Structure formats: C-alpha cells, structure tokens
C-alpha cells in the first residue's frame, strides 16, 4: 500500500519527507519492524516507543509516526508528527486492513462484570440464528467455529483490526467484543466503527490503574460519548451509573432492568439449580442460567439482538437454548451429592452476585463454603472487600492464592484478612496453596453442601513470578470428587 493512501484520513501535525512510499506493514513494536514498515511510536504504560525509533529505522522502517521528532533524522525516512499516536495506530491499522469494521456490525460490551458472558452469549445466539459471527473476549477470539486463546480482554489495535479483517474474509456479518477500560483509555478501539454498545455495570475494580473511581466511570463513559448517531447504546439502569453512560451519546438510547421500568424488562419467576424461569419482556422463558445477574445478562443479549433487527420470537427461542459460558457459574456434582460451583468472580460485586444466586437456590439445610483469593500486582483496596463479601453469605471461607504474579501470596492473603471481623475469625481458613485450599473445602463439605471456588473461572493456569503454571479449578475439583 502507498503511504499516501494509508495516511489519507489521518490528522497529521507535521510531515517531514516523502509520502509516496510502498508500505508493507504497520508496527508499534520495534522488534517486529521489517523493510518498509510504518513504525508508530506509542507512549505506553511501561515503555515509551519514541526510545525505539532509532532501532526501528535500523531495521528498515521507512515511515515513523511519533508525537515528537527524534533528534536525529535519517534521509529516505519519512517522519510524521501526530497529537496522539495511540489513536493514530488504530486508524492506521484500520486503513491498512481496508476498514474491516465498515463491512460488518460490531457491538462493544463494557462494564466491570458481565462483559464476557454477554459478548459470548451474543456470539452463540447469532451463530444459532444462522449468521457467520466473530467474537473478541477475555477467554478467546473466535471466527465462526475457529478459536484462538485470548491474550488480553481487548487486544492491541493492530491485533483487533487483523482479527476483524479475517472475520470479514470469512463472511462474518457481526462481531461481538469486550471493551475493557484499559482499552478505551489506551485508544485500542480507535479505528473501529461500532454499530452499538452495551453497558453492564461499574463497580470496584482496576483502581490500581485508574486511581480513583470517578476516573474509571469517566473512561467507560467515553466509549458511549464517541458512538455515532447511527448506532445504539444499551445501558443497565439497575446500576446507579447506567444513565450517566447515556448523558452525552449521540446514539439511540435504550435501557434494561430486572428491577425498574425500562425499555427492556425482565423478572425472575422461579430459581432452580438447573436454571431459571424468566418473564422476559412479557414472555415466559426457561433458561439454563442461575442468578439475577445472569437474568440481567440475558436481557442485555435480548436487547442487543432486537436492536440489530432480529425477530423477537426467534431470539426468545434461541435464548432458551443458550448455555453458560466456560468458567461462569459452572456446576460440578459429586456422586454423594456435594455441589461445586466454579466462577470467574474476581471483584467484590461479582462475588456478591454469585453468592446471592447461590443463596436464592439453597434450602438452608446445607453449608456454603467459599474458596477465594485476589490477584497480585492489581488493585489492593478490593482485597479486604472480597473477604467481607465472602463472609457475608458463606458458612465457611477459605482464603487462598489466585494469580499472585510478582507479589508474595502470603501478603495478599494477609491483605484479605484485614476484611475479616474478629467475631468471624472462626469461619475463616487461610491456605496459601490453592490446590490444598480446594481440597480442604471439599473435605469440609457434607452431602448437599455447596462449594464455591471463585476468582479464576475459565483460567487453566496460575501466574507466579511471571511464569504460568498449569492449574484448572475444575480439574482439581473433579480429582478430589473422584469423578
């Protein structure tokens, strides 16, 4: 591609050099630069790409995009100054891959909890409706039935556009993607033409990155502020910040709720361990999901499908056929009647929701035993809150390791213990080894008891000192259940 075409719609501050160059790739990592690459120097969280401009030129980069020119300018290299290289990377990636998001409908799902479930269920629903569909989620990236394990909730801008170009090549008409607050703030979604957006909720998380809750809300809101007048914005008004997301959007506005009057409304009629009977927009619908939070997720899925022009009766039929997402309220039952539930809940609010769902289906004759940890190198302020939520709805709680990363797992557990009141200390066990913690919970449980193993869900690893070791909660549970 000629660089003059690539930069046709890019807002450039200053250009030094020739734009009549053949360009063979766009890169932001200097290690991937080859002859005739465009190198975009980003100011990242951990590194400043401007420091690698010289290396990129030595490797053959013919165009350099930067926010400030380097002190040394090479002949035959074009230097382009921009205001925000993060934003420009997405725009260049979109142009390089021939604007894939203009050729299908992309729906972004953002919020603290529920993103993976809603995006994945929309993917399942539209596949079942007969469409070719793509998915970008925390768990995996999918193009129809092809699957690739995910590296990030929302990948970098180059990866996104490459994935979406592949989706277009495979005939996908829709793509459903999780949109993390990090991705919004770092402009990873720049260059995407969204057909619509969904807001799930916003609770205590990622304050290690955003520092204050108000900034976290502001970043989420920015996603909706940037939607165009041709799109739709669907928000959960059961969350106190739900309407905040719609304040400045140009998109068509829709609300959903399981508690209040809204454009899309749902009531839970019956709770069972196998599922729920819902009144979904006035229609009785059986689902394979448990808990009010899942009723809310299914309502968001329904609302998005209707906004995308689908037939109401067909959508309701297919919602009854949907199955829970990997690692989200997955149940495993032992031969003697002990029930284990594996869930990804790793924020105080998510844990509260899962335990509320368990409380709704319990008979009061059984114990609830919760195994929970907290991730290392992440928001420390939520650690005591996680312990408090676990204690509130559990008969016994085992504090253990999650992904300690580079932190001392014993210190993480100590931080969680700060949330345990003295009168509840006899309900709490601290067991650093996660395998031993799960084993202990299973051996404490009697037939009929419910064991919640929370925090990791679909993950099949533990990350310790930058090394990922194989670890799967479900495998460990089955081993000690003897099944």
What does this entry look like structurally?
The protein is α/β, with parallel strands linked by helices and 483 residues long. The protein has three domains: 3-96, MurE/MurF, N-terminal domain (Udp-n-acetylmuramoylalanyl-d-glutamate--2,6- Diaminopimelate Ligase, Chain: A, domain 1, 3-Layer(aba) Sandwich), CATH 3.40.1390.10; 100-321, 3-Layer(aba) Sandwich (UDP-N-acetylmuramoyl-L-alanine:D-glutamate ligase); 330-481, Mur ligase, C-terminal domain (Protein-Tyrosine Phosphatase, Chain A, Alpha-Beta Complex). It contains 15 helices and 24 strands. It has helices at residues 3-6, 53-58, 85-96, 115-128, 157-169, 181-185, 207-210, 213-225, 292-307, 312-321, 348-361, 383-393, 409-417, 434-444, 473-481; strands at 14-16, 25-27, 37-40, 63-66, 78-81, 105-110, 133-136, 140-143, 146-149, 174-178, 194-199, 232-236, 252-257, 264-272, 275-280, 283-287, 330-333, 339-343, 368-372, 396-399, 428-430, 450-454, 461-464, 467-470. The strands form four sheets. Strands 9-8-7-10-6-11-12-13-14-15-16 form an eleven-stranded mixed sheet, with helices on both faces. Strands 17-18-22-19-20-21 form a six-stranded mixed sheet, with helices on both faces. Strand 8 (140-143) and strand 9 form a beta hairpin. The mean pLDDT is 94.
